[in-house]
Structures are given as C-alpha cells and as structure tokens.
C-alpha cells in the first residue's frame, strides 16, 4: 500500500475505535476525504481503498477534478466559501454544499440548480464560536435564515456546518460542537429535514464524533500535511 492508503486505513481504524468507545455506530458517520490541493492521483489511491466521498474548497479546482474523474463513482462535496460567480461550477453538480451563509449565494445556488434540473442539498454554515475570522451565520439568526430560504424550490437545507477554533483547549472545541448539535436539535422542531452535522477535522474529529457529528471533513490525516 502507498503512504496515503496506509494513512486512510489507520484513520478508519481510529474512527471505528472512537465510535465503539462512545457507543455510536460508525455507519452513522460520513467521512469526506478532503483532497484540496492534492492531485487526482492521490484521490485515485483512496478510491482504490473503496472510499468514494471527496471534498474540495475551491470551485475551479473541484470543477477541474470532476471533469478529469468523470465516470468514476465519486460523491463530491464542496466545503469552502462560495463567491457568486463561482456557484455555476458546483450547484447542481455536487452532492452537498457545506458552506451556505448568505441569501445572495443561496439564491444563486437555487437558480443554477434549477438550470441543472436538480434540488441542491446544502448545509448552513454557523459561526458557533463567534470568532471574527470565521465564516457563518450567527446562531441566534439561524432560524430566520432557514425560514428565508424555504421558498427556494431548488435548494434544500439538510443540516449545519461549523469549524471549531484552532486551539488545544478541548473544552472550547467541545462547546463549539455541542452548540451546533443543540442548534440542530432546536431547528428540527420546525424543519424536520435538518439532520446533518458537518463538524470535525483532522485535529478534533474525536470530540466531534462524541458530540454527534454525522459528517467529518478530514484531509491531512489521509493525504498528509499541505
């Protein structure tokens, strides 16, 4: 096996161990292998291991990789911030967009998805930690934001996404993830389709699993340091 394939196998073992310890079924987790900046050859190495879900954070990069890997059994996720003029590269073409935080972008996604004849599933990005450097809707505004997007016929909000602060303080990370879970639970009372929790990356996925993540976005632990 290659280094990447060995990393992937080791990660899967760790994910299974964490799930077992906290009483979760690993089948409840969706692992997005974040392949940003890595070549198509690296994606093919992971694909050979039977993994089919990959994430990118730049619209033109995911466009190019989707074209090069056309015909392969790949579920693509877009996980980065989207500019209006780049929406055309992903809307209606990827399985899930993780990073919706404005009505303007949501409406453009809806428009482009309609052209593709699809309903685009998206996650609302939430700035749970309140850091100024972070993207996302404020937690107190999340309910109104989901309601505002409800009239869009070709866009469906199916969950929430957040990023924890870059810190070694596990309490701060846990509070961020538990805050997103609690927000999801509250929103579900009026919006039953909101089920997904995209949270947890290479440095904090253990805590994310413990706090109920349904989607993990992991790159470095698989592909190596960028």
Describe the structure.
The protein starts with a helix and ends with a helix. It is α/β, with parallel strands linked by helices and 226 residues long. It has helices at residues 3-21, 40-47, 59-68, 103-116, 142-149, 170-188, 205-210, 220-223; strands spanning 30-34, 53-56, 75-78, 96-100, 120-125, 155-161, 196-198, 215-218. The protein has a single domain, classed as Alpha-Beta Barrel (TIM Barrel), CATH 3.20.20.10. It contains eight helices and eight strands. An eight-stranded parallel β-sheet has the order 7-6-5-4-3-2-1-8. Helices cover 39% and strands 17% of the residues. Strand 6, helix 6 and strand 7 (196-198) form a beta-alpha-beta unit.
Provide the CATH topology: TIM Barrel
Task: Going across the biggest sheet, name each strand in turn.
Answer: 7-6-5-4-3-2-1-8
Number of domains: 1
Strand content: 15-25%
Oligomeric description of these chains: single chain
The main pleated sheet reads as: 8 strands, parallel
What structural class results from the helix and strand content? alpha/beta
Number of helices: 8
Q: Per the principal axes of the C-alpha atoms, what is the gross shape?
A: globular
CATH class value: Alpha Beta
Which architecture per CATH?
Alpha-Beta Barrel
Low-confidence stretches: none
Distance between the termini: 21 Å
Mean pLDDT: 96
Assign the CATH superfamily.
Answer: Alanine racemase
């Amino acid at each position: 096996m290659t280094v990447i394939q060995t990393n992937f196998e080791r990660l899967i073992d760790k994910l299974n161990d964490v799930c077992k310890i906290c009483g979760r079924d690993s089948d409840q987790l969706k692992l997005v292998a974040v392949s940003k900046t890595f070549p198509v050859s690296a994606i093919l190495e992971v694909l050979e291991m039977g993994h089919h879900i990959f994430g990118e954070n730049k619209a033109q990069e995911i466009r190019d990789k989707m074209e090069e890997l056309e015909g392969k059994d790949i579920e693509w996720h877009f996980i980065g911030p989207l500019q209006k003029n780049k929406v055309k590269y992903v809307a209606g073409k990827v399985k899930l967009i993780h990073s919706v935080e404005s009505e303007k972008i949501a409406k453009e996604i809806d428009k482009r998805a309609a052209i593709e004849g699809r309903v685009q599933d998206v996650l609302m990005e939430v700035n749970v930690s309140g850091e100024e450097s972070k993207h996302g809707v404020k937690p107190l505004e999340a309910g109104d934001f989901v309601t505002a997007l409800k009239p869009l016929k070709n866009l469906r909000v199916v969950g929430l996404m957040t990023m924890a602060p870059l810190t070694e303080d596990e309490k701060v990370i846990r509070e961020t993830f538990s805050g997103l879970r609690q927000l999801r639970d509250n929103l579900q009372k009026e919006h039953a389709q909101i089920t997904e929790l995209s949270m947890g990356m290479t440095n904090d996925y253990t805590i994310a699993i413990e706090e109920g993540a349904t989607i993990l976005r992991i790159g470095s632990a698989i592909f190596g340091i960028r």
